């Protein structure tokens, strides 16, 4: 199944004044950028046909793959001055690079690669900046056996804020952590059918327009997941993942030692 990755946004909250022209999916976690970790996750489950929706900082992404160095994350033997790989990451990957505009909304980026999805009843999509260990085969199976037009993984709120309930006089009745409320947020992992294109207007949004319209029609399926899921919306969040990688705490790296995650109920 093809995987569409949205990697053309500015990623404003990731900027720290040192590499402001580097798009968020190219921020490093260990020796590889975020986008590589996301792609490696999909490849682990056999999905190796990628369509990259490029925009801001596209040259960074192109250069990374055009000059890809396999020895960074694979064992090898140096013989006669040449590296002989003992394993490989991307030799069986197909990567299509498409410039989808600097200012384009996510939905418009998807529209602009539609011709690369002709003949594909279903396909996968991702923001390319969120890591998880969710059981992808289960997500796909639940969607494929439904009649929904799209599926999105949903996760508990990650915010540390508290919600305050008060009366008309301003007296507080309760204070509840957002994470403890019966709420879910978009997890950024999608399984889509061609029908999604019928509900995304020009320069429209994938979630607000496409998924929103499907929800109104009762054709949007949610996949609730309470396992490992980490966004990288801020420098702090990205740094935390980098530190976790350094100490060997990598729940998302299912390809290491062939690990799998149990299906949800």
Automatic annotation (TrEMBL):
SUPFAM superfamilies: Nucleotide-diphospho-sugar transferases. One of its GO terms (molecular function) is glucose-1-phosphate cytidylyltransferase activity. Keywords: Nucleotidyltransferase, Transferase. InterPro entries: G1P_cyt_trans-like (IPR013446), Nucleotide-diphossugar_trans (IPR029044). The keyword Acetylation does not apply. It comes from the Bacteria. This is Glucose-1-phosphate cytidylyltransferase. It comes from Prauserella flavalba.
């Amino acid at each position: 199944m093809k995987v569409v990755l949205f990697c053309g946004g500015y990623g404003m909250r990731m900027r720290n004044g040192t590499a402001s022209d580097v798009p968020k999916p190219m921020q490093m976690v260990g020796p590889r950028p975020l986008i590589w970790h996301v792609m490696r996750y999909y490849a682990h489950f056999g999905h190796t046909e990628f369509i990259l929706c490029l925009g801001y900082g596209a040259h960074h992404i192109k250069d990374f793959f055009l000059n890809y160095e396999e020895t960074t994350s694979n064992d090898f033997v140096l013989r006669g001055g040449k590296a002989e790989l003992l394993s490989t990451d991307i030799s069986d990957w197909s990567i299509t690079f498409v410039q989808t505009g600097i200012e384009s909304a996510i939905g418009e980026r998807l529209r602009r690669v539609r011709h690369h999805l002709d003949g594909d009843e279903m396909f996968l999509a991702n923001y390319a900046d969120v890591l998880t260990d969710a059981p992808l085969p289960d997500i796909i199976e639940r969607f494929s056996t439904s009649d929904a037009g799209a599926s999105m993984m949903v996760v508990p709120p990650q915010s540390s804020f508290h919600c305050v309930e008060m009366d008309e006089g301003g007296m507080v009745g309760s204070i509840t952590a957002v994470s403890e409320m019966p709420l879910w947020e978009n997890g950024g992992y999608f399984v889509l059918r061609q029908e999604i294109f019928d509900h995304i207007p020009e320069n429209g949004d994938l979630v607000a327009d496409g998924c929103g319209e499907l929800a109104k029609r009762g054709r949007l399926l949610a996949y609730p997941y309470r396992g490992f899921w980490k966004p990288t919306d801020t420098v702090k969040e990205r740094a935390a993942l980098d530190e976790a990688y350094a100490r060997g705490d990598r729940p998302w790296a299912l390809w290491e030692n062939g690990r799998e995650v149990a299906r949800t109920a």
